[in-house]
Hints:
This protein is α/β, with parallel strands linked by helices and 157 residues long. It is 35% helix and 14% strand. The chain is built from five helices and four strands; from the N terminus they run αββααβαβα. The chain has helices spanning 16-20, 50-55, 57-70, 101-114, 134-149, and strands spanning 26-30, 45-48, 74-79, 117-123. Helix 4 (101-114) links the parallel strand 3 (74-79) and strand 4 (117-123).
Amino acid sequence: LDYFPNHTREICNWNFIEELLDEYEYIIVLGYRNIYHECAKHEKIYLFSSSDLEYNSRYVKESISKLIERTNDIYLSVDMDVVSPAEFDSVSFPIIGGINFTCLLYFIEWIFSVGQILFCDIVEYNPLVGGDNAIMFYQFVTRLLKIQEGNLKDDEK
């Protein structure tokens, strides 16, 4: 998770979410892996792991629906660590397990369809490690933009 409280350095990937806490009522993170880290506990940050997305989708949808009912002031952070390294290994810290792109895109499309997400980021793509995943990442980002704009055609779903 890119959240370490009380940082004293300039903004970078590992402290970016702390900078967002004053700007947004809630932050949803798809792709969190280390659920035992002390920084994982913050009342404004809602973390969903690859296991949550794959095996407990009802919990994910209910939790996010409740947030969206309370406010439209939501920031979405998509951590590429959530994707299985067998499918996408260009991340700084690949972890065994993970979901496929289809599952991740399903949740992102659902989130955009049920509420207004003000901003979204995609973190942890690292082209310096893993295989040559640039085309796959480009396709992923392009699809996210189409989802956000509501321009996804039926044959692309």
